[in-house]
Amino acid sequence: MADRRADRPGQPARPARRAWLVVSVLGAFVLTGLPVAAAAVVPPTPTPPVPAPQSSAAPAPPSAAQTLAADKPPKVLLRALQRDLGLSGEQARTRLVNEAEAGTRAGRLQNTLGKNFAGAWVQGTTSARLVVATTKATDVAAIKAEGAQAKVVKHGLQDLEALTAKLDAAAVTGGGLDTPVRYVDVRANKATVQATSSTAADKLIAAAGVDRRLLDVRVSADRPRALHDVRGGDAYYIDEKARCSVGFSVTKGAKQGFASAGHCGKPGAKTTGFNKVAQGAFEASVFPVKDMSWVGVNDQWTATPRVKSEGTADVQVAGSVQALVGAAICRSGSTTGWHCGTIEQHGTSVSYAEGVIKGVTRTTVCAEPGDSGGSYLSGAQAQGITSGGSGDCKSGGVTFHQPLNPLLNEFGLTLKAAPTQRDTNPQDASGSWGTGKVYQTGARVTYDGVSYVCLQPHQSQGVWQPARTPALWQRI
Question: Domain ranges in the chain?
């Protein structure tokens, strides 16, 4: 949340210069490229080679890793992954590529299995194994055909999500702070309630009227809270009283700005930048229920796809494709710096003192007060805005981020991303696909007279036309 303390007196002013809107304080990493494979060596032949006939076929489309810019990670990201996940440099590179490719295969299977689909996740040090769960044994062959490991379970993802929604409704009416976290654990094929005691869990389950056999209860003293007291890094100030961190640069038509946490400010609140230069105002903000906001900036500020990294380095955001459960995720915070972990669950509900927040992502990345409002990335792909958490970065903790794609969709924003390919023919006027739209797995569009189905949640970029990105779209 915001810092209620006054700025420190005597702090030297930064030199005046044109300000760049840097996506930050939980900053980010962006991947810009790692070789997918080494070139094969052709042995010499004793006779002169015969010239191969020129092919008129179109060039091969980019791989999933190339589309998501997971094939060329910056050194700062690799160092953080090595430190926090205990990986070697080569393992970190391999993991990022594997996770990008796994997302595409999981999306194809989710669309194929329909209601039988019970979740997908990656496993192993380098995420080499994709596991896909189904409620029907007859789906095993289809899952294996995609190179994934099949797991046959009792409950479909849709059914468990409906059960969790009943728990959320009961938590809103009473006892939410004693049962602060609720989510679907796809790996266990159960809905999960984190409670401060078994008694508190029993009361919530009874109030929701759900079958306890479908639930896993975890007793913990942790009480997640919105993260307050932001300090350091590229901060921004609210009404000259409080501070928060910039998240990701965005645009809305000709208006530029940035996304941040909803608990940082209310609509109309004025902001100044890290250098105390007038910056803009909150255009919209939602908190609780969701934890999202965006600030529109004036013409002294320019939105860029950059995110502040270690030292003076910046990295580039390439898109907003949602990563799978089990995937690596990293952040940079004004209080605790760069830290990495893994995605535990999507669609988590959390009860803060201020109210219930729904649809956030639970991660094993640590954070502390002051890290609120900034950026989470998996590889080069923006994932979300820091909302809250429990624990700290000395003993370990859990954090929750507001997913970015719902924020972009809610406010009609476009993420400012660095292009990874040449942007040609960005939109087919006769089709339903278009840039700047948020698509979910299973969404159907037409492009150039052909129908496609979406494989992974994302906001479309100009270079991500369905015909050119089989990582994100499947022709039907």
Answer: 18-34+157-420, 64-152, 421-476
